[in-house]
Structures are given as C-alpha cells and as structure tokens.
Amino acid sequence: KYQVGSSAMPYKRNPMRCERVTGLARLVLSLAGSPPMTASEQWFERTLDDSSNRRVVLPEAFLAVDGILQILLNVFDGLVVYPKVIEAHVAAELPFMASENILMAAVKAGGNRQELHEKIRLHAQAAGALAITGRGGDGPAGQFADRQLHLLVLAVALQLQHRLGAGSEAGDMQT
Prior knowledge:
Blueprint: H1 15-32, H2 34-42, H3 48-77, H4 83-97, H5 99-108, H6 113-133, H7 139-143, H8 147-160, H9 166-170
C-alpha cells in the first residue's frame, strides 16, 4: 500500500516485489548453467566437484523458486483486474495480431507473399502511426491508396471472421 518503487516509473504497482521476482528468476536461470558445465568437464565421473556443485545448486534453485512463488502469491492476492481496460487493449491490437492470418489466407488465395507482406506492413505501420499520433504516416503508407489491397484484406477478413476473435490470438481469456 505504501510501497515506493522506481522514481522513473511511478505508475507501476508492486514494483519492488515484482523486481525481486525478476532478480530471483535470473538467479535460477544462472544456476541452471552450472551443472551442465561441470558435467561437460567430468563426463559423469562423479568426482567431488560434481557432488559439491549439486549440493549447492539444487537447494539454491528450489529455495529461489519457492521465494518467487511466495512473492507472486502476495502480489496476486492484491491484484485488481480491469476487464474493460483489457478488452480495449486487445481490441486495439487485434487487427495487428490478425495480420499474419490475413497474409497467410491471402497467399493461400493466390496472392504473392512478398508483395502482400510489404503492402500489409506499410498499411499496418500507417495505422499504428495513426493510432499513436492521430495522423497517418508519410507516403503511400499514410495515403492508404492501394484500393486493391484494401478490398483483398476485407475479403480475407470476411472469410476469417470466425477466427478473428480475441480467443484465436490472445488465448481464451476469462474475465
């Protein structure tokens, strides 16, 4: 409640606990490299340095993961979810996430993959610029001049309409 985190990111909630989780996760990842390094040198001879390594690495890894889980339980206990905010973010990103499905369906329908990829990329970048700045990009991307691509994307989108729901790209989110 009174936790103060990074002064550079005052909007973050639970920053110290989540950063502690990240640090412990990094520790676990670093521990994972030690036994294979020893094994590569020992060829399973089971010398003292092999067993001493295991006596340190295994308990440390389990203790660190236990710490991670305890911290996450604490964070999740106070977690507040705003379904409308999540829905708005997913809806804003869904057209971009669906662009791969649109590209693949357009190629399957006989389009040239390289040409379609470039056109969709330009349109997606212009749409992204429009969403961020309120105005489209420069040049052909900002003009949306290619009516053929627009019609093709609409046709493919209609064919894929049943697959363009949030569940297909973002998993089956339960709110």
